Amino acid sequence: MAKTAAPKPLRVGLLGAGMIGATHSAAYLNMPTVKLVGVWDADPARAERLAKPHGAKVFDDRAKLLKEVDAADICLPTTLHLENIKAAAAAGKGVICEKPLGRTLADCDAAIAACKKAKVPLLVGHVVRFFPEYSALRETLLNGKIGEPAMLRLRRVVCAPGPRGAWYWDFAASGGCVFDTAIHDLDWLLWTMGRPKTVYGVGRRDADSLQDLALITITWPEGAIAHLESSWCHDSFATSFEVAGSEGLVEYDMYDSAAVRVAPTGQAAAASGKTVPESPLAKSPYQAELEHFVAVLRGEAQPIITPEEAREAVELALVCLDAVRTRAVIELPAAKNAARKPAAKQAAGKKKAALGARHPE
Ligand SMILES: NC(=O)c1ccc[n+]([C@@H]2O[C@H](COP(=O)([O-])OP(=O)(O)OC[C@H]3O[C@@H](n4cnc5c(N)ncnc54)[C@H](O)[C@@H]3O)[C@@H](O)[C@H]2O)c1
């Protein structure tokens, strides 16, 4: 029988060769479905470092790179996302963009509109949806295994990202630990619990040392309460969660579960280009995310995240910043276009049917 030819690798151009660009580039090395064609960065040495193992070209002209690819992978500082999404969309290329989608809602709206107008997919890298622990927690809640969720405690702490003077130190550019880093948990909460009702928070920020820290409380109309700890004051990266429901408890701490962990800090992190944790034993969630994006771009999968959902994560992160700044309890306005699926509470009501279908035990 004649063999069906494998589809040609998707030709990807990497825009941005910093920390997360290096993580994506490393993932592409393990993905036969992708050919990294070229890298574009203001710093050619960084671009060269990532291009070399792929035999890819370094481009000093973004337009030229965009001409040669099927998709653009945007790993640039957050305030540059919009301009680069627009350029890729105008060139008719699919877009994979790191989170947050934009620093403002106006940027998010313009990015979404540009991709809609050009009829190109826009996929945003909310990678926590691809961490097995966090997707397992979501499944546990949606299947009603611990009843109605009552209290969700999520922690995500890391050292100050980037060397002194990097764009992360400019609050207007990065939004600090809440906007840049806790947005992962905010997206997961929106994805799993639906749209919250209120947000309250306290925090502090020392711009000179980039010591940035916040404790945020979020409530849902059904009664659940989440407590987020977000910090850029720690030595190294750490995440954990604890979720209590009417019928049980789920707990996770990355320091308890990884058999082998690699998490360089300080100078070593700068040298390796990594402040995200990795395990040499497990498939990188970044690779799983990029594989999913490739499948979506090829029409083989429905996107796990829509651009509107990525916008809603930005909206919630901005509300959290307002709450921390004003020390007021902020009520979220009604959803712009009620894009959210039912929250865990409603899913818990369907527990028996769902469990019967998915867990025959
Ligand atoms: N999903 C995740 O876990 C995760 C982790 C880290 C960062 N991020 C996001 O990824 C994005 C990039 O973050 P990073 O940590 O890689 O930043 P970084 O500072 O390490 O890298 C940014 C790169 O962009 C280049 N650059 C800056 N301005 C440029 C310009 N005008 N033209 C061309 N190149 C330019 C820099 O030279 C640098 O190489 C941010 O939006 C950040 O929030 C996501």
Q: What report would you give on this structure?
A:
The protein is α/β, with parallel strands linked by helices. It folds into 2 domains: 116 residues, NAD(P)-binding Rossmann-like Domain (Rossmann fold, 3-Layer(aba) Sandwich); 200 residues, Dihydrodipicolinate Reductase, domain 2 (2-Layer Sandwich), CATH 3.30.360.10. 39% of the residues lie in helices and 22% in strands. The strands form 2 sheets. A 7-stranded mixed β-sheet has the order 12-11-7-10-9-8-13. Helix 4 packs parallel to helix 5, helix 5 runs antiparallel to helix 12 and helix 8 crosses helix 12. The chain is globular, with a radius of gyration of 20 Å. 44% of the residues are buried. The C terminus is likely disordered. The site of nicotinamide-adenine-dinucleotide (NAD) has 24 residues, from helix 1.
